Amino acid sequence: MAALTAKPFALADTVFKRHYHEDVVYGYRVPKELEYFDYSPEQLANRQQQAALVCLVDAYRSTGHRATDLDPLGIQKIMTIPELNPARYGLTDADQKFNIDGIIEAPSADGSKTMTIAEIKQALEHIYCGKVAYEFEHIPDTAEKRWFADFVEATSRDNSLGKAKKRRFYELLARSEAFDNFMQKKFGQVKRYGLEGAESAIVALDELFSLCNHSGITEAVLGMPHRGRLNILVDLLKYSPRALFHKLQGNAEFPEDLPASGDVISHIANSPKLNYGCKKDLHVTMLHNPSHLEAVNPVVAGYGRAKQMYLYDNNTDPGCALGDRLMGIQIHGDAAFTGQGVIMETLGLSNLPHFSLGGTVHIIINNQIGYTTPATNARSTLYTSDIAKLVNAPVVHVNGDYPEEVARAVSIAFEYRKKFRKDVIIDLITFRRWGHNELDEPSFTQPHMYNIIRARESVPKVYERKLEDECIVTKESAQETRAQFTNFLEDELAASKDYQPEADHLKGKWSGLVMPTEAVSTIDTGVDIGTLREVGEKSVSVDSALKVHPRLAKHHIQLRLKRLAEGQSVDWATAEALAFGTLLKEGFNIRLCGQDVGRGTFSQRHAMFVCQDTENVYVPLNNIGESQGKLEVANSNLSELAVLGFEYGVSIQSPTILPIWEAQFGDFNNTAQVIIDTYISSGETKWLRQSGLVMLLPHGYDGAGPEHSSSRIERFLQMCNTPMDLSDAGVVQNPNMHIVVPTTPAQIFHLLRRQMKRNFRKPLVVAGPKTLLRLSLATSTLDEMAPGTSFQPIISDTLASSPELVQRVVFVSGKLYYDLAKTYQENSARIGSKIAIVRLEEICPFPRQELINEMRSFTNATEFTWCQEETMNAGTYSFVQPRLQSILPKGQVLRYIGRGPLAAPVTGISRVYKAEQAQIVKDALADL
Fold first, then answer.
1. How many whole angstroms separate alpha carbon 555 and alpha carbon 644?
2. Are 897 and 920 in contact (CB under 8 A)?
3. Are 263 and 303 spatial neighbours (Cβ–Cβ below 8 Å)?
4. What is the pLDDT of residue 832?
5. Do 210 and 112 reside in the same domain of the chain?
6. CA dihedral 679, 680, 686, 687 (to 10 degrees)
7. Are residues 65 and 190 in the same domain?
8. With 90 as the cut, is the pLDDT of residue 440 above it?
C-alpha cells in the first residue's frame, strides 16, 4: 500500500481512507480499520539521524503523564521521571539545534522545523506535563497513536479561548456553586450529593454538548451516578427547579393517579433539547439510574444502540456511519470505575458488532476517594482509569481546578472519538468538598485531605479571580451572576407549592400504548396457516451460494420443511421461528441476544447459517419480505450483567423492538441480578418506563447438577407484586412482570407474539425448556397457532376422560408434566380417571379464574397437590401455595409433593437424583 507522505496528519486534511464493513445483520456502516501508513523517505531519514531525539520525544509521549501537576489538592507529588532527562540520551547541549520533521509536530507558532534542545524540552513539558496529561502509547494501532500525538502537539500551539466561552464557563461554575449553597440553606438535611469541588464537570459536559451540536450529532445518551446529578439536571438539562423542590418537600414526582412509587432525587432524569447556535437541536437523554452506582452504564449503551437503529432506519443521509448522529456519554465515580465489574463488562462490549455505539466518551469525576476509602485502598493500579486499557482506550487526565484545560481535554477526547469511533476516557481529577454526602463528617477518616480542602477556595472562586485579572468579569458582575440565579431559585421554590407534576411517559414512539390496569393474558395471537408455512419455509431458505453444514441440511432444514408441510409435530425452534417471522412481516424489529444464540446453546435454533467455505453469515428471516422488520442476531461475549443491562436499555427505547436475552442456562441470570432487581422488576413503578424485554432462561431438572438445573424462578416470583390474598374474586392483578413456564411450542409462539401485540409492554421471564426442545411429546400443530388461538395460562387436563370421577388433582408446571404423563399412560389401567394433571403455564399473573373454571369439572375431587421437581425452598411452591389454597374447596389443604428443602438447587449425585425424581412421580400418581 502506498505510503502517506509529507504532513500526513495536517489537521485540516482527511488523511485516512476509511474502510467500512456491514455490522452483521443490521447493516450499519461502521469504521473497521485504518490504512497502513509510513513516514515519507525524508522523515524516515531524519528520524534515523536524530535517534536520540526520537527517544526523548517518545519518552514524553509515554511517561510524561507521570510528571504532571494533576492533583488540585497537591497531595500527590509531581514525580521526577529519569526518562525525561535529555542527558539520558546524550543530548547535553541545550543550544544544539535539530530538525524535528517527522519527530514532533512543530509546536512553535511559526511552524518552524528547527528547534534547540532547550526549546524542544520546554515545548514537550508544556504539551505533556502541564495540567492535561495523556496516555495513548498503550494503543496497539500505530496509526491511532501517531494521530493522537500529532493532534495534541499541533493543537498545543494555541489553545486560548475567546471571552464569550470563558464567560460561559464562569457562569456555569458560579451557578453550580450558587445552587449547592441554596440547597444547603433550604434543604440542609437532604443528601443531595452536590458538585462542590468538581464543578468543572459541568464545564466538561457543556463543552461536550456544544461539540456534539456543532458536529451534526443530534442525539446524546447520558448515564451518570448521583454525584453532581442535580446540578447538571437543573442547569444544563433544563429540569424544572420547582419540580425538584416539590419532590424535596415530600411530594411525588408523578401525578398521583398513576401507579408509580417514584424514586429518590439522585435517580431522577430528564430529556431536553439543547442548542448551541446550530440549525438542529441536540436531544440529550439522561437515563434514570439506581443506587447501584454503575449499573446504568450498559443501559446507556443499549438505549443508544436502539436509538441508532431508529436513526439508521429513518436516515436520509446514505453516507451516515455508526456514531455520526448519536453519542454515548457515561459519567463515573473514581472508586466505582475501578471497583465495579460492570465497568469492565460494558467496556468489553464497546467494539463488538451489535453492541458498538461508534464510541462513547467517559468522564470520571475523580474525587480521589470513595465513601471513606482513599485511592491507595481502592485500587491496585496507578490510575483509576487503568481498567479502560482493557479496550486500549486513550486516557486524558486533567486537573479539575482549571476549567479551560478541562475544555481542552474534552475537545481532544471528542476529536479522537470522532476520528476512530472508539471509547475514550477523561480522568477529571477533582475533590469532594464535603463527605460522601453533605451530612457526613469526612475528617473522621481523612483529616489531612480535609484540612487542605477547608483551607482552599472553591473552583468557581479561583476561576472568578482569574477572569477578573483578565478583565472578563468584575466583582460586581460576578455578584450579579450569583444573585440572579439565587433569586431565580427562590422564585422557583415559592412556585413549587402550587406545582402539579406531569407524566413524561408514553410519548413520541410510545404514544398509543397505555398503562394497563389489569393483566391481559389471553389475546388472539394466531396467524393464518398459509402464512405460517411461508414463514417457516423461508426460515430455512438459504442462498444457493452458501454451503450449509450437511447435518443441518438433513436434520434441521429438511425436517422442518417436512413438519411444516404436514402441519404436525412442530418443534420448539420452529414455533419460535414462526413467531419471529410473523412479527417481522408485521414490521416489528427483533433483537435476539445472548451467548451463542444464533445456533442456540442446545444446537436447536440455527437462526443464522454459517457458510462452510467462507464463514459468511446468513440470517434467513431477514429475507422474507421487502417491508419486513429486521432480526438482529447478537451473539454476545461471555457477560450477563452488562449484556442484560444493554438489552434492557434497548427495551425502554422503543416499543417496536422485541428484545430477547437468552441465558445459556437459567442460572446465568445470577450474575445479572442487579439489572433484574433495579431495572427489570422495578423500572416501571419507579420511573414509569415500560419494558417488553424477554428473558429466556433454560430451566429444568435433568441431572445437570446444582447450577444448570435452576433459573431460580422463586427469585423472580418474589419480586412480583401480585397480591398474596386472592380469596376475593374482585382482586385485580397487574403484575410488574409476567413469569411463565411454557410446555409446548405453540405456547412460546403465542407468548412471543403477545409481547408485541398488546398495547402495553411488560417484562416476560420464561423458565424455558432444555429437554423439551426435542422431546417428541412436546410438539404442536399449526392449527394450535392458527387464527383464534392464543396463549393458555393453564392447559386443561387431557388424560382423565371422565372429570367427574377425578379424586386427586395434581397441579404442576414445566417439564415434570411429561414425566408424570408418561407414567400415567403406562399405568392408565390402574389410575383410570382418578387423577387429573393440570399444568400452570403462567405463574404470574396467577391464573385464578382459569383454575376456578377448570376445577368446576372435578366435582368429586378430595385431594389437591402441588407437584414440582425443584426443592421445597425453591421453584414456584411458595408462590402458588397460598394462591391455590384460596380457591380450593372449603376444608381442603394443598399437599406438597417434591424434594425437601436443600441449600443447593439439587443434588449432584446422579444416583440420588434419579431416585428423588422417581419418587416424586410415584408419590404424585400413587393409589388413593
1. 32
2. yes
3. no
4. 86
5. no
6. 80
7. no
8. no
For residues 898 and 914, give the distance between their C-alpha atoms in angstroms, rounded to a whole number. Answer: 13
Q: What confidence tens digit (pLDDT) does each residue in 521-556 have?
A: 789 999 999 999 999 999 999 988 889 999 999 889
- The predicted-structure confidence for 25-56, as pLDDT tens digits, reads as follows 344 444 444 444 578 889 899 999 999 999 99
For the chain, the average pLDDT equals 91
**Are residue 345 and residue 431 in the same domain, yes or no?**
yes
Picking from 469, 503, 537, the residue at the C-terminal end of a domain is 503
Q: What is the CATH number of the domain that holds 670?
A: 3.40.50.12470
Tell me, yes or no, whether 466 and 552 share the same domain. no
pLDDT for res 310: 79
3-state secondary structure of 766: strand
- Phi, psi values for residue 695, rounded to 5°: -110, 115
Q: What are phi and psi of 733, to 5 degrees?
A: -105, 125
Most confident range, picked from 16-20, 95-99, 295-299, 516-520:
295-299
Return d(Cα 842, Cα 598) in angstroms, integer.
27
Give the whole-angstrom CA distance, residue 814 versus residue 399: 59
Judged against a pLDDT cut of 60, whether residue 472 lies above it is answered with yes
Q: Do 246 and 384 lie in a common domain?
A: yes
- Does 157 map to a domain? no
Q: How many domains does the chain have?
A: 4
152 within a domain of the structure (yes/no): no
- CA geometry: angle 735, 736, 740, nearest 5 deg: 70
Instruction: Summarize the confidence of residues 653-671 as an average pLDDT.
Output: 95
Question: Which structural domain range is residue 909 located in?
Answer: 794-924
Residue 516 DSSP class: -
pLDDT tops 50 at residue 4 = no
Q: Are 899 and 906 in contact (CB under 8 A)?
A: yes
pLDDT at 728: 67
For residue 438, what pLDDT is reported?
Answer: 83
Asked whether residue 781 falls in the same domain as residue 917, the answer is no
- Assigned domain for 39 exists: yes
Give which of 114, 9, 108 is closest to 53, Cα–Cα. 114
Domain of 827: which CATH number? 3.40.50.11610
326 with 407, same domain: the answer is: yes
Q: Give the rounded distance of the alpha carbon of 403 from its chain centre.
A: 31
Residue 764 pairs in a beta bridge with 694, 738
**Which residues, 6+ apart, have CB-to-CB distance to 458 below 8 Å?**
177, 196, 197, 199, 433
Is residue 9 very low, low, confident or very high in pLDDT (cuts 50, 70, 90)? very low
Give the closest residue to 423 by CA, choosing from 366, 353, 322, 350: 350
How far is it, in rounded angstroms, from Cα 563 to Cα 139? 53
- 263 lies in the same domain as 365: yes
- Evaluated on CA atoms 388, 393, 397, 400, the torsion sign reads negative
Which letter, b or e, does each residue of 9-37 get, where b requires 16 or more Cβ atoms within 10 Å of its Cβ?
A: beeeeebbeeeeeebbbbebbbbeebeeb
Name the residue with cell 410438539: 779
> Contact at 8 Å (CB) between 269 and 287?
yes
| 671 found inside a domain | yes
Per-residue cell: 644: 442484560
Burial class (CB in 10 A: 0-12, 13-18, 19+), 61: buried
Rounded CA gap, 626 and 702, in Å? 43
Distance set, CA 250 to CA 230, 262, 266, 356 (Å): 17, 11, 14, 41
- The pTM for the full model equals 0.94
